[in-house]
Amino acid sequence: MTDWSGDIAIIGAGIVGLATARELQRRRPRARIAVVEKEDGIGRHQTGHNSGVLHSGLYYSPGSLKARTCVAGAAALARYCDERGIPLERCGKVIVARDDSELDPLHELYRRGVRNGVDGLAIVGPERLREIEPHVEGKSALYSAGTAIVDFGLVAASLADDVKGAGGAILTAHEVVAVSETSRTVAVETTWGDLEAGRVIACAGLQADRVAALTGSAREPAIVPFRGDYWLLPAQRRHLVRSLVYPVPDPRFPFLGVHFTRRLDGEVWLGPSAVPALAREGYRRGTIELRDGLDTLTYPGFWRLVSRHAAAGLGEMIRDASRRTLLRSLRTFVPELELSDLLPGPSGIRAQALARDGTLVEDFVVEHKGRVTHVRNAPSPAATSSLAIADLVADAVEVE
Ligand SMILES: Cc1cc2nc3c(=O)[nH]c(=O)nc-3n(C[C@H](O)[C@H](O)[C@H](O)COP(=O)(O)OP(=O)(O)OC[C@H]3O[C@@H](n4cnc5c(N)ncnc54)[C@H](O)[C@@H]3O)c2cc1C
Q1: What is the residue range of 105's domain?
Q2: Which residue has its alpha carbon closest to ligand 1 atom 2?
Q3: Does any domain span residue 65?
Q4: CA 221, CA 236: separation in Å to the nearest integer?
Q5: What CATH number has the domain bearing residue 215?
Q6: Which one, of 156, 152, 153, lies nearest residue 170 by Cα?
Q7: What is the pTM for the complete model shown?
Q8: What is the position in ligand 1's atom list of the atom closest to the CA of 53?
Q9: Does residue 159 share a domain with residue 196?
């Protein structure tokens, strides 16, 4: 049984919680800091199940937290990887407009990227696109030379080493089950002993709404898990994609669309889809967790979202379930793709906050209440932004 007491307890050893612990430890070397994680190890959820893209920051509304922290976070993370010898490859990325209807949105993305301060952006024609990606077809593309790939799991492991090296504790297999605030401290009850801290910062990802509710905060916006399944190109077909190939995103959704992602080990992943899931942490297709399913299906915001986007949602579910339908849409980028090129791959689950009125919460949300801070909505690009989110949280905590 652990009985720990100290200055700051951080709930969740994903990349956001670990980056925050490291930043606070860096600013206050004498502070006693612990990261409390329910799994046996770190980075077991979103941090360990994603596309591994260090986004440049071009998608997000100028001035938003996503825009600011993504641009700053990508630069900080690249420097961090360089210092620590963590592999990072600036492979570049193209966002491809396939027909005339996508040209205006593509140019709008370019302008957004420039306003957000992203360097190295260019609109290119079909010939230049062919030079960058010889097997990809399109009318035009937005080329982001600085976009990189990285293994966020390795970054998280290094951040955890930093925390431990500076005297912090990482308490795995400690699920937080109750939190109560007194006038001077916060008592945190876990499945493996009790903790007492001057401050608590919750970075609980897929469980953010439940952990918020434990501390008496509103349950809303609720987390609705969106599953993303990937497919893999067979080794002999990986030459079809050199770097990162993305569609022009649908502005109604905060997801980037099914893309082609080169990984550091040379694999090429196709995906992820974006379909509502009935399990927050079930990575096998078809997994249902009763509590998770009920929470989603009884949330009015979910049904409002469904009624607003029924056609798009159904299309995405069909594409997720049918390899042939997915192939048809992927072939609009890479016409040489065959059905046999789509091998089943891993899955990830996004923690996306959804408001009661059915709106997908667009920006990151950080909420402060008394001695507890909640990172309530940190979906993509929060891995890219993690060091900048950590800065932001540390600034807020220090002001007090
Ligand atoms: C399919 C997919 C693709 C993505 N692609 C990219 C990408 O290419 N680039 C990018 O920047 N971002 C990407 N993202 C987003 C990115 O992975 C997340 O934004 C980021 O990992 C969030 O980190 P986190 O620490 O907030 O959450 P998590 O990594 O989910 O960590 C939260 C932690 O809290 C713990 N926890 C929860 N409840 C409790 C409790 N009660 N007690 C103790 N511990 C608890 C969990 O076990 C978990 O370890 C993607 C995400 C997905 C799902």
Answers
A1: 93-145
A2: 50
A3: no
A4: 45
A5: 3.50.50.60
A6: 156
A7: 0.97
A8: 8
A9: yes
